[in-house]
Amino acid sequence: MAESLELPVIDLSSPDRISTANFIRQACIDYGFFYLINHGVEEQLLQNVFDESRKFFSLPLEEKMKLGRKGDVGFAPIYAENLDSSTSSKGDLKETFHIGPLEGYESHIKNQWPSKELLPSWRFIMEEYYQKVVSVGKRLTSLIAMALNLEDDFFEKVGALDKPYAFLRLLHYPGEVGDSDEVIYGASAHSDYGMVTLLATDAVCREKHKQPRIWEDVRHIKGAFIINLGDMMERWTNCLFRSTLHRVMPTGKERYSMALFLDPNPDCIVECLKSCCSDSSPPRFPPIRSGDHLRERINAAYSASS
Ligand SMILES: O=C(O)CCC(=O)C(=O)O
Ligand SMILES: [Fe+2]
């Protein structure tokens, strides 16, 4: 039985930004995960997004497949993605819908939307949620910069937040536990690829970097986002801040969640911060173009289906 993990709680509305940044620093060193409360995204909007998501995933499969994944956006059915092909060959027992940047990438990201006849408010609600969570994510990254003793606009200055590459992913884990002999995961073990993820959900399992792996449950706090750092934050900080492995186990209970991945502009070069390396602790990763890193990881997760 997994132990329950008490993650730190960060209050985004606190006027004392220095203390908040210090709490964030400790949370990112210890866990790479924390709760974010008082973020300003209204309960009602969160509820509306869950409701609309439920309506979409309840449509017949052929209707959902009309919006099948093109480029990185649209619907992907169960087993399409495999976040950890080393533990399972079948893929993850979840279906997803991805919404990409609303502006700045029109030439190659063509968001798909359910028809107004089927789901009249869908696009409007998703766009509102997307914009609000991206702006929460930007406020959070300024505190993360402060937590690294950088200017609060550091991530803007390096171009990461100039047309950030943000994706909203709606997730639906069906209630069944799968019919194969193999272990099937809702979402198999992975770390996120980008900068920071803002997750709204009802229950998850997280793992700490330990061998043998010890999995700990994360409880849901109503209205709070669960924040986790992605691999690019780990690269910037030379592993001072963690991009922690996590997974979702099928419990036999249906579950919905939505993750906003706030990733840097694809042209942003992610390289070890000067304050995070020294002669005795040289950079563990070479500089990388954010878009190249993302492309490699996304392609690997969808390689069986694309
Ligand atoms: O649904 C969840 O709780 C987690 C999903 C997740 O980790 C992901 O999509 O990267
Ligand atoms: Fe994840």
Summarize the structure.
Keywords: Iron, Metal-binding, Oxidoreductase. The chain is built from seven helices and 15 strands.
Structure description:
Its EC number is 1.14.17.4. Keywords: Iron, Metal-binding, Oxidoreductase. This is Aminocyclopropanecarboxylate oxidase. Residues 164-264 form the Fe2OG dioxygenase domain. The chain has 306 residues and is of the alpha+beta class. 27% of the residues lie in helices and 22% in strands. Helix 1 (17-30) packs across helix 4 (122-147) and helix 2 (43-57) packs across helix 4. It is globular and about 55 Å long. The structure holds 2-oxoglutaric acid and fe (ii) ion (FE2). 2-oxoglutaric acid (AKG) is lined by residues 169, 171, 187, 192, 199, 201, 204, 246, 248, 257, 259.
Please supply descriptive tags for the structure shown above.
5-stranded mixed β-sheet; binds fe (ii) ion; Jelly Rolls; binds 2-oxoglutaric acid; alpha+beta
The CATH class turns out to be: Mainly Beta
Any ligands, ions or cofactors bound here, and which?
Answer: 2-oxoglutaric acid, fe (ii) ion
Count up the helices.
7
Largest sheet: 8 strands, mixed
Task: State the oligomer.
Answer: single chain
> How does the overall form come out from the CA principal axes?
globular
Family: Belongs to the iron/ascorbate-dependent oxidoreductase family.
Domain Fe2OG dioxygenase: 164-264
EC number: 1.14.17.4
Pfam families: 2OG-FeII_Oxy, DIOX_N
